[in-house]
């Protein structure tokens, strides 16, 4: 796990009528990753985008596409997202019948593997898989919609995972997503997060000054 803080802006908060331009702007503003939320209206109560949109967006940047699949069953879609240009593919353990198999499937396409925990999901769902994954995404809101309020009650989970990872010397990034803003980003970092996902704050604060907002989240 890198100690350097990375910022992964969520394009869920971007202007969907000009997504390509928005991604180019994020690239120029110093984003480390581009966070893509994929929702199916089944696993979570919202529908966003499929692999074809990601394929169309891929030429706009060389930055890492950090793709969070909130879809179930997840396995049958992994190939499509891998081929569309995802660099990291993150799934929920509740969305698969066999977590180990899903991890192997993602790795078979030479992609990094992330597992996401919803606010009420227990660490026990993933502890046996830590040696096989690259990233853990802690949701600090209930997944489904942007603009929700940060849930500080998830921070102890983040701290516990950070301790386990440090003790076992695993190289796993800890990402947090949901209501991250200038007031709570430092708490998330102190709890162990080294990748911050943010949508509304990056796109809307300071009159939409992307570079300023990314820099503030990284440095606060």
Can you describe this structure?
With 220 residues, this protein is an alpha/beta fold. It has one domain (6-219): Aldolase class I (TIM Barrel, Alpha-Beta Barrel), CATH 3.20.20.70. Helices cover 33% and strands 19% of the residues. The protein contains eight helices and eight strands; from the N terminus they run E-H-E-H-E-H-E-H-E-E-H-E-H-E-H-H. It has helices spanning 19-28, 51-57, 75-84, 99-108, 155-168, 185-191, 200-204, 210-219; strands spanning 6-9, 33-39, 64-70, 88-91, 112-117, 135-139, 173-177, 195-198. The protein has an eight-stranded parallel sheet with strand order 1-8-7-6-5-4-3-2. Strand 4 (88-91), helix 4 (99-108) and strand 5 (112-117) form a beta-alpha-beta unit. The chain is globular, with a radius of gyration of 16 Å. The mean pLDDT is 96.
Primary descriptors:
single chain, 220 residues, alpha/beta, TIM Barrel, eight-stranded parallel β-sheet, 8 helices, 8 strands, 33% helix, globular
Number of self-contained structural domains:
1
CATH fold naming: TIM Barrel
Number of E-state strands: 8
- The first-level CATH class name: Alpha Beta
Structural class: alpha/beta
Taken in chain order, the helices and strands follow as: EHEHEHEHEEHEHEHH
Give the biggest beta sheet. Answer: 8 strands, parallel
**Stretches where pLDDT falls below 50 for ≥5 residues?**
none
Helical proportion, percent range:
25-40%
> What count of helical segments does DSSP give?
8
Instruction: Give average pLDDT, whole number.
Output: 96
Spatial extent as radius of gyration: 16 Å
Classified in CATH, the superfamily is Aldolase class I
Spatial separation of the terminal alpha carbons: 20 Å
State the CATH architecture. Answer: Alpha-Beta Barrel
Shape: globular
Order of strands, widest sheet:
1-8-7-6-5-4-3-2
């Amino acid at each position: 796990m890198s100690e350097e803080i990375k910022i992964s802006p969520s394009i869920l908060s971007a202007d969907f009528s000009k997504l390509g331009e928005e991604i180019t702007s994020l690239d120029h503003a110093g984003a480390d990753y581009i966070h893509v939320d994929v929702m199916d209206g089944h696993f979570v109560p919202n529908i966003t985008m499929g692999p074809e949109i990601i394929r169309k967006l891929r030429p706009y940047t060389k930055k890492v596409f950090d793709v969070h699949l909130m879809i179930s069953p997840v396995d049958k879609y992994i190939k499509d997202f891998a081929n569309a240009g995802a660099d990291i593919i993150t799934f929920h353990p509740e969305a698969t019948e066999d977590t180990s198999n899903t991890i192997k499937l993602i790795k078979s396409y030479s992609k990094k593997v992330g597992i996401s925990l919803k606010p009420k999901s227990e660490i026990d769902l993933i502890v046996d898989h830590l040696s096989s994954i690259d990233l853990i995404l802690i949701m600090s809101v209930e997944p489904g919609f942007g603009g929700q309020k940060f849930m500080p009650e998830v921070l102890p989970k983040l701290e516990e995972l950070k301790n386990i990872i440090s003790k076992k010397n695993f190289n796993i990034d800890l990402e947090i997503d949901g209501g991250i803003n200038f007031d709570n980003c430092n708490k998330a970092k102190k709890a162990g997060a080294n990748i911050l996902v943010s949508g509304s704050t990056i796109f809307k604060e300071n009159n939409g000054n992307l570079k300023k907002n990314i820099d503030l989240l990284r440095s606060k």
